[in-house]
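Changelog-adjacent note: as of this version, every example in the card shows the full chain rather than a window. The one below runs 418 residues end to end.
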Amino acid sequence: MAQNWCGELVYQAAEIQRPTTVEQVQELVTAAERVKALGTRHSFSAVADSPGGLLLDMTELDSDITVDHQTMTATVPAGASYSTVVEALEIESVALRNLGSLPHISIAGATATGTHGSGDTNPVLSAAIAGLDLVTADGSTVHIDRSTGDLAAVAVGLGAFGIITQLTLDVEPSFAVLQDVYLGAPWQTFLDNLDEIMASAYSVNVGGNFSPDNLRSFWFKHRLGVDGSGNPIVPERPSTMFGGELYDEVDPRNPAATPLGVAGPWSQRLAHFRPDAQPSVGGDELQSEWFVARADAPDALRALRAMSDRIDPHLHGFELRTIAADDLWLSPAYQRDTFSIGFTWKKRPTGVRALLRPIEEALGPFQPRPHMGKLSAMGRDELLDRFDRLDDFLAVVDRYDPGGKFSNPYLRALRHQA
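Full-length structure tokens:
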């Protein structure tokens, strides 16, 4: 019985196939009545399921990772994990602009659901897509890029347009990163200085729970310049920042974390977790995430703190990040600089699901958008209000997949269909 990464979601597909070539993908898609792509199974929602149909596990697709140094792009297989891709890119002395917290997730799955890293100037991971190759419902292949006009819909596409086989991503010259962690800053200091704190490094992540007086951690990831000899210029590292105390070692509670306090390549610092270790809390979790306008972050956090007695008993911890605005239709940061509030829940499905609606109601004044790959209670009307290009997105889906071969209950709910 196939399950997602945390083991909570059991896929309802009748069959799973693991193609190794694009030709096999084409044959399987052509023969299937219903089909969806599956990557590293890190979605907590049923966005990737194909009840009664076929799932294509794309992680074994045989395709090279290539870099074009003229166009500064890299072409990568859709099912490859970020950890595999970044290692290959670093060998070529190029980098992706940003990474998510976990390098274990697949490129296509992460980008199709609007996954992101952090940083005031860093957009969602999907914004790096310069083009992609898609197997459509009749088994033919289509290339979509920024010149074709549909990439704004397809880049965060929920698997609705077809089976992505490879993506072409923007890259830039490799760079060094130093990450520092500061522990125990007061909540009030953070709320009073939120803009300054989130802008104080290339990428900033804040972790903790809602009820304590102090936060757990600030993760500051500094992108380093180089001196005349090409060596990274390491900034001064104060012993305290914003009321938090510098922590130089790998946390013994979290030995899977990437190295602290020592400069290293972007590929080994931008993600929080090492690819050779179990990330997060090892799958003993559920996840939700909501996105509000950056300017609304302090008030949104105060609203959640007001219900901390209900939230925290079910919560391992939260992660707070910032995301630059983009023009991708179903991106959580579509046309607004964004603040993300990510919840890593204890694996208590009944209690967690009972909290989704109250949290969304508390955040309601701030027009929250949900992460499509995580748990949410929002229905079609709310999603249409939050993603004002949703119906435009669905119209493009109909053009690529008029018979609904790549649809599923999750996507049909976006249309008020059973």
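Structural remarks: The first helix runs from residue 22 to 31.
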